């Protein structure tokens, strides 16, 4: 079977999938991404020629496809991925934005950046090593960020003689752990990135596997959500007040609709003030519009002259969050410097930034056992935990489980502007699926 693909330039309008890759060092993640790009005809000729030349220079007979993604000199010298690399490609069925994240434990925090907007995470495992601590860490980050779909890519099957029992044991261990994290959609795929088995083309060596290839799954997994079913959330980014002869009284509030559908005439609440009004007009791309839906960038005009500024949130009248100064949240600490109780930080939530104090670190999560270890004085780099913050001004947060855009925030060092911590309002992990949901943990073709 041959998968029909086109280049990015030739691809028609199609749905968009944002996905992230993660895997331990030497699991072959960069090779997998390179193989996916190469075999889907998403690599330009000059890029491939450069990779071939670099491979020959290093004494390799075949092109090292990992070089398609590892662009930094340090990455190529050490054979590891250090920074998050974004790749854009398309097939005839879908467009893709791929965030290739580092596998080394030192750079686990970079996965938070790459997976924060992803709808699918590909977690790579070496078939010889199975599920290791870093695999569990990547699964935990995916669960923490509420990534809705996870693919377990069991790589290097060629080095275990394409043995089905090896794959089945790894898939069972991983899906059991994923269930404890509350991840409800896991698909396991056996493959060999080096040989190209089950990446874009089906493998001739694993006739016991009857499921989709990795690319086929990426092309067909459900993505997106129905904006009409989500509450309206519009963070104000900029106030437009031209005061010109042509527009003497124009007052608009520009930004990107984070969720929901906004219509002219809708009742809305402006937070944190709590003032209510209605939508008088919507402007998009210089034209008036009757309706706007996430994630459109629009300018909103309100029926009443009320005080609205950057950082305010315009929300659906009957479904607005309650502003609060007390925040309990799950966090992944990103900085090398520990986060301590009593630390003074800035909280950046959508377009609003306020001062805050770390009142308590409720617990740190042991990634191996998922045990909540209380009494932690601080969180170190890559630690996942639960904190309590007290802000100087109220913030209108949703639970991260309900809304990834308005339920997330960053903690920033007020002294130098360094991003310290990524936060998600609410508890760390969702409740594991009930017995009736077990069929959603599956191996393709099983």
Describe the protein's architecture and organization:
The chain has 446 residues and is of the alpha+beta class. The protein is 17% helix and 34% strand. It has seven helices and 26 strands. The strands form five sheets. Strands 7, 8, 9, 11, 12, 13, 15 and 16 form an eight-stranded antiparallel beta sheet that branches. Helix 5 crosses helix 6. Mean pLDDT is 84; it is low at 1-13, 72-82 and 431-442.
Record keyword descriptors for this entry.
446 residues, alpha+beta, 8-stranded antiparallel β-sheet, 7-stranded mixed β-sheet, 7 helices, disordered N terminus
Using the CA coordinates, give the radius of gyration.
24 Å
User: Could you tell me the mean pLDDT?
Assistant: 84
Biggest sheet, in brief?
8 strands, antiparallel
CA-CA gap between termini: 20 Å
How helical, in percent, are the residues?
10-25%
Could you outline the blueprint of secondary structure elements for this entry?
Elements: E1 15-23, H1 29-39, H2 45-57, H3 73-78, E2 85-90, E3 94-100, H4 109-115, E4 120-126, H5 133-144, E5 149-155, H6 164-181, E6 186-190, H7 214-220, E7 233-235, E8 238-240, E9 252-256, E10 261-263, E11 267-271, E12 275-284, E13 287-289, E14 291-293, E15 297-302, E16 313-316, E17 324-333, E18 339-340, E19 344-349, E20 352-365, E21 372-374, E22 378-379, E23 384-395, E24 408-412, E25 419-425, E26 441-443
Parallel strand pairs: 1-3, 1-4, 4-5, 5-6, 6-26
Antiparallel strand pairs: 2-3, 7-16, 8-9, 9-15, 10-14, 11-12, 11-16, 12-13, 12-15, 17-23, 17-25, 18-22, 19-20, 19-24, 20-21, 20-23, 24-25
